[in-house]
Write a structure and sequence with these properties.
Elements: E1 2-7, H1 15-28, E2 33-37, H2 43-49, E3 60-62, H3 66-72, E4 81-85, H4 92-100, E5 103-108, H5 112-130, E6 136-144, H6 149-156, E7 165-172, H7 175-183, H8 193-208
Helix pairs in contact: 1-8, 3-4, 4-5
Length: 212
Amino acid sequence: MKIIAILNEKGGTGKSTLSTNIATALHRAGKKVVLVDADPQGTSRDWREASPPDADLPPVVALDRPQMLVGSLPTLSANDFVIIDGPAKAGDMAASIVRVAHVALIVIQPSGADIWASAATVKLIRSKIDVGGAIDAAFLVNRTSGSTKLSKQMLTGEWNEYGIDQLDSTIGNRVAFAQALTDGISVYDLADGQAKAEIDFVIQELEKAKWV
């Protein structure tokens, strides 16, 4: 079982959007996947409850307290992947997620606020590594737009002074992602081929790095 956490202290970065679509991509590739909603806001739970009855999507379980998360993970060990949709605060819950995760994807948008907020998550990751823990981590840039200067700067990685890798794959600012989250489906159920390709590229990059 490999545990992949989708994190950032700041709310609204698109953690749930990416968690639901990455989990669905792995699920439809024939892997046994469970999506853990570790955010008290429950966005991933709401997404799954909005799904059509015959939706081809992974199950979602709510584990939004540290002791509940750590204690329940052994019951999920039959899965190939556990995708954790992290909370907006880098408190005890986020620390517990980093402690159990094998891979951490730090989601950021082309925004100074997102970059600054990610420092708390980076600190948790570095603390784990400093005490001998193993975790692979990278930034994943979300909601990019090629027309803005800030998006272009984000893609170059010049902003990144944290010593954490940045994925080459990025996610564009596309209506399909918001629609899929609202309708309880994935971008694989919509007509936007570029949105699907972007999630596929993320999965392919993770596979190449042997993170999935």
